[in-house]
Amino acid sequence: MMKPGFDEEGTLSADAGHRTSACSDPLDADTLWRMLTEAARAAVDRDPLLSALYRHILLEVPDFASALARVIADTVTTPLLPERAAQERVEALLDRHPAIARAAELDLVALLREDAAIPEPFTPLLFFPGYRAVQCHRIAHQWWLDGLTDLASHLQYRTAVQFSADIHPAATLGAGLFVDHGAGIVIGETAVVEDDVTIFHGVTLGSSGKVKGDRHPKVRRGAFLGAGATILGNIEIGEDARIGAAAVVTRSVAAGATVIGPAARPR
């Protein structure tokens, strides 16, 4: 099903390992925000039971970054960490690092272009565990870089509990990521995931047993990681490479290559 604001060139192609780059997408932030708020206004009238949610996240704030802060604050909040304090902390971080919200916008664009199961443009932001887990990681990652490792670890834990995705705060994620479902994803401390990568549920970017140093995979731009793929060690998954579902990969994969099966054989 086509999504509002997107032409046919942006739909998912038959070769799922190669997709349109979200990072070069012409859709600007103002247009995306207008799409989200227009859809939210319609949703308020359509389903009054959720109207308070739509207003709180999307209609009572001035921009996407503010909406993102409220979504992430919802994850950070506990009985001992009030929502308002969490929201203010996240808002302050986004003010200092606007690239975080822009990366979240690009992730959203990637999902809207390629996931036919999305009924509304705000659906990933409000209801998709994979998308929300990635955005929580972006905040946790910056806190980690700022030396706020306890706060970053708290958000990592809350994200894992709520969304079943365990991403170490030190891991580096690019923009325009297509993270489908998110359940069971594990990404280790020294892993790097570049722009426009597709990650399905159950993917592990783990260590091969080394306990210190650079020990996790480097996934280059445009790579495709199928459901349940296990990628271990400080190896490289090349640009536009495709890893099949349930593959176990312990050696580097060349750019553009496809590997499948438990032994990750070249196809």
Secondary-structure map:
Layout: H1 29-46, H2 51-59, H3 64-76, H4 83-96, H5 98-114, H6 123-127, H7 129-145, H8 149-163, E1 166-167, E2 172-173, E3 178-179, E4 186-187, E5 192-193, E6 198-199, E7 204-206, E8 218-219, E9 224-225, E10 230-232, E11 236-237, E12 242-243, E13 248-249, E14 258-260, E15 265-266
Parallel strand pairs: 1-4, 2-5, 3-6, 4-7, 5-8, 6-9, 7-10, 8-11, 9-12, 10-13, 12-14
Antiparallel strand pairs: 14-15
Question: How would you characterize this protein structure?
Answer:
By secondary structure, the protein is of the alpha/beta class. Helix content is 40%, strand content 12%. The protein has eight helices and 15 strands. The strands form three sheets. The chain has a six-stranded mixed beta sheet with strand order 3-6-9-12-14-15. A five-stranded parallel beta sheet has the order 1-4-7-10-13. Strands 2-5-8-11 form a four-stranded parallel beta sheet. Helix 1 runs antiparallel to helix 2 (51-59), helix 3 (64-76) crosses helix 4 and helix 3 (64-76) packs across helix 7 (129-145).
